[in-house]
Give the backbone structure.
Amino acid sequence: MSKKNEKIIIPLIAVGLGILVGMIILLLSGKDIATLFAGLVKGLTGYDMLKAGSAVNLRYPGEFLVSTMPIILTGLSISFAYRTGMFNIGCEGQVIMGSLVSCMVAILVPMPNFIAVVVCIIVGGIAGALWAFIPGLLKSKFNISEVVTGIMLNYTALYGANYFLRALPGSSAQRTVNIPENAMLGSELFKQITNNSRFHWGFIIVIIAVVLFWFIIEKTSFGYSLRATGFNKEGARYAGIKVNKSIILSIMISGFLAGIAGAIVVQGTFGYGRVMVAMDNYGFDGIAVALVGGCTALGVTFAGMLFGLLKVTQPLLQTFGVPKEIGEIISSSIVFFVALQYAIQYYLLKFTSGKKKKKQELQPQGGDVK
Amino acid sequence: MKKVFKSALVLLLAGAMIAGCSSKPAATATPTPEGDGGKTATTCPVKIGLVTDTGGVDDKSFNQSAWEGLVAYAEENGFSTEKGVCIDYLQSTSDADYIPNLSTFADEGFDLVIAVGYLFQEAIDTVSANYPDKNFLFIDSVSENANVMSAVYNAEQGSYLVGIAAGLEAKANGSNKVGFVGGMEGDLIGAFQAGYEQGVLAANPDATIYVDYADSFSDDSKGQALAVKQYDAGATVIYQAAGAAGNGVIKEAKERGGVWAIGVDKDQYKDGEVDGKSIILTSMIKRVDISTKTAAQAILEGKFQGGPVVFNLENEGVGAELSTGRNLSDETIKAIEEYATKIKGGEIEVSAVPVIANGASNK
């Protein structure tokens, strides 16, 4: 079996097994499996299978897309760094900084229409990139693990952002004032079409990000040098690639994507800055999305939609009688089975070739993360 | 062989997860009395949905009380008290869930949607405007929309009474120091703090009051850390108004021994039991269950009306837990009752504006 096919089949098997685990647990707890599927279908399309002939409620697909957008972006963010051999666990903090700066600029800087939306998103992205610059610099200069600095910076971002959000004019203890209308991504048209869901223009940004990700990573020499660094840092250095520069740039681009995710959450979903008690986990969801999506543009898009669906249908599933833990069990089982990919690969190999043990073929993918 | 191993692994995993989760239904079922007594109605004339904040219906406080009101409503009318039949709830994992949770209930044909807690302000304003044909109950704050009944509580009055208890106890044991642990700073919990401050000082003008906020209604480890701080500073009574985060205060008092905690929202005496005795001095009662129950009943009878409804000492929507034979002396109970009469008669006016800053004391 070719490597390319394997890359698609393994996540699919993992998703299948994850859903199977969810189904088994649902069965054992005496619930009807049909409700799980009816709930997922309704969450995706708005159509209720259990009530044949009922009207399609477009709020559900609208909300589904709303929950999908930020985690596709954070999935891309994690993937981008991972292709250069880095694990950007600081993604969560970069999302928070993106939210903060986008919100601050929107509230504090009066801007003409049309420009405001774009400016706020871009400054959000830049804030994420700058926040990612810190672990990037520490990694390239002093070889300090970006995992440790990233996790610490997540908390710095969370509590730091809360301080600044509270300090903005008009803020209460929980939130800022609404950002000006011209910085919002929402649209009355979408609201009308989708039965008052919060669906917003952010989807265009997500599509642009997916295409750019694919183009940079797969089609440019810059992307090639990043991937080379990811495969083998010393080899890349020997080949004349500026490894340190690659590392910093790649994690900054990763941070930029995370920052944009934060910006569209503020400008699209909420319309104000939230003083957060705990992290939203967009960044951590992104890790799962990147893992399942195999760190490719298309894979991340589908994985993001899958995880977004499991997340957004939780209330719906509960009203259908499915315990809310089922969605979490399915998504974590999927991650578990993807992490077991070498085992799946191993059995696939045995199954398809029927040959004897060929452990030496099981080359690790991605870089050696130090 | 390998296939057997693989399927065994899957089963093992599934088994482990079931084992891990099996305690969950039991925990969430605690507010629901055993069985339905065979009087389960097969159909429900109306469906009621309750959306909790991050605390959940087993937070031993605010959200639980709201859910218990619905359970009592179902019981009295002979409906099933099981979640998901005539009454249902959704727990929010973060504020991002508020709007989707409320909208889901409205979309899935629920007749009354209840939002528990003032943190739902934006969400309830938005959703009730999106669904003008649906009815909503908003607890602890006011929404202007016509289809929303807003239940507001004069929590400062009940807090004043437990403040009396704390002040007298601190005087009796000689420490003269008491504490307050709040959830999130703001008007709502501020009223609890304000009433408590005034009550303590009315009973014991020399008392020192420490005030700290957990910045959370769900983080009990934060609540416990603040309790450690205040008890270490010499406080002998702490009033916690922090939802599930306040359970950390109770936990610390139980482990420490020789100190008191004051319950909030519902009678928490049982939560503080150690070796047959409880460290809960008294509890400030806020009858959230009354508001959910009356609203549900009104929906059932087709008499639901939007607008604010105020609960105070007068209509027994708030108060202090004064059962005899517990930890309050008869004199204290008598003193509290006297103050309660004065508040009801308008002789004492309790302000809802706190004085002491977060992290500080009045001395």
